């Protein structure tokens, strides 16, 4: 049983909403890091905004699949999520390589303190990327379990009882 809901299908629905909102929000922010001697400003242009919105739409596939109990839609989202995890891992590796180059440059020109500051940024960056990947993997596991629930028809009886009692009160 998932941690936030009664069923894995409901948990997949909630996690899909969380991921879609986070994707939309993160794509709208600019990142500013000031290390005293080095000022980094990453402006999220139209490309980053488009990627964030596409990512939010992809998470809407999970929302749709969980809401309609469509195991094929959930499978499509799982495949896209795995590809996204690979993409995040590649970005993390490239970011570490870039920060390593900046650290070496900082050590040569600005001293050991500046190189230490870049190392702190690298550690925070790596922790953030690992967090993204782990959250995505957890959601993939919940989605896989939701597909199993849908295939086995688990919790379907409970939904039928609620729907039939609603009809009895309406009629």
Question: Could you explain the architecture of this structure?
Answer:
The chain is mostly helical and 171 residues long. It is 80% helix and 5% strand. The chain contains five helices and two strands. It has helices at residues 8-26, 46-68, 71-109, 112-152, 156-170; strands spanning 31-34, 39-42. A two-stranded antiparallel ribbon has the order 1-2. A hairpin with a 4-residue loop joins strand 1 (31-34) and strand 2 (39-42). Helix 1 runs antiparallel to helix 2, helix 2 (46-68) packs antiparallel against helix 3 and helix 3 (71-109) packs antiparallel against helix 4. The longest helix has 41 residues, at 112-152. It starts with 7 loop residues before the first helix and ends with a helix. Mean pLDDT is 78; it is low at 166-171.
How is this fold's topology laid out?
Blueprint lengths: L7 H19 L4 E4 L4 E4 L3 H23 L2 H39 L2 H41 L3 H15 L1
Helix pairs in contact: 1-2, 1-4, 2-3, 3-4
């Amino acid at each position: 049983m998932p941690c936030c809901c009664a069923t894995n299908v409901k948990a997949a629905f909630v996690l899909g909403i969380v991921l879609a909102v986070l994707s939309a929000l993160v794509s709208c922010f600019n990142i500013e890091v000031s290390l005293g001697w080095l000022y980094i400003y990453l402006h999220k242009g139209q490309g980053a905004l488009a990627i964030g919105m596409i990512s939010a739409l992809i998470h809407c596939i999970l929302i749709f699949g969980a809401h309609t109990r469509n195991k094929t839609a959930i499978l499509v989202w799982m495949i896209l999520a795995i590809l996204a995890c690979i993409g995040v891992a590649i970005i993390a590796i490239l970011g570490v390589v870039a920060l390593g180059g900046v650290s070496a440059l900082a050590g040569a020109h600005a001293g050991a303190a500046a190189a230490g500051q870049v190392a702190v940024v690298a550690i925070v960056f790596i922790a953030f990327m690992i967090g993204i990947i782990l959250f995505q993997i957890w959601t993939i596991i919940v989605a896989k379990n939701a597909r199993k629930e849908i295939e086995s028809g688990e919790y379907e009886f409970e939904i039928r009882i609620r729907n039939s009692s609603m009809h009895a009160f309406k009629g």
